[in-house]
Each structure stands twice: as structure tokens, then as C-alpha cells.
Amino acid sequence: MTKKRFLTYWYTGMGIATAVVAVVAALVLTIIATAQSILSLAKHALKTADEIVTTTQPIWELEHTNSTADQLLTEAQAIERHATLVAETLEKPSTAQ
Question: What's the predicted TM-score (pTM) here?
Fold first, then answer.
């Protein structure tokens, strides 16, 4: 092998190695940029999910509200029954005269 041929192979190999390193570096930079974009979108999605939880919290409290309303209705009906009994008792003519 002549010196000229050796240098031709050496420069060709170095060129190929440089091209491979450049491609790998570009791919790594692309992966880093994509990962940062995914992280940014995930943070945004998490913030939106937190806002949804906060905004819909009153809906989850409706079950408690309905339960309390049912209790109030039951108590109001009991008061109505007792008031009716009292009113009927007061309206009856007195027999102890």
C-alpha cells in the first residue's frame, strides 16, 4: 500500500466517522428537544387536569348536598305531621266543659 492510498483511505475513514458523529449528534439533539417538548406538554396537561379537578369539585359535592336535602325534607315532613296534629287537636271542640 502506498502512502497516497493510505492517506486516501485514512481521510475517507475520517470523513465517514465525522459524518456518523454528526448524524448521531443531530439525533441526540433532536431527542433532547423532543423530550423537552413532551415535558412541557405534560406540565401543561397536569395544570389543566388540576384546573378540571378544582372546577368540577362542586359536582362531586352534589351527592352530599342531595343527602342533606333528603334529610331536610324528612325533617320538614315530620314537622308538618306534628303541626297538623297540633292544629287538629286545637280545632276540636273541648268536651271538658
Answer: 0.55
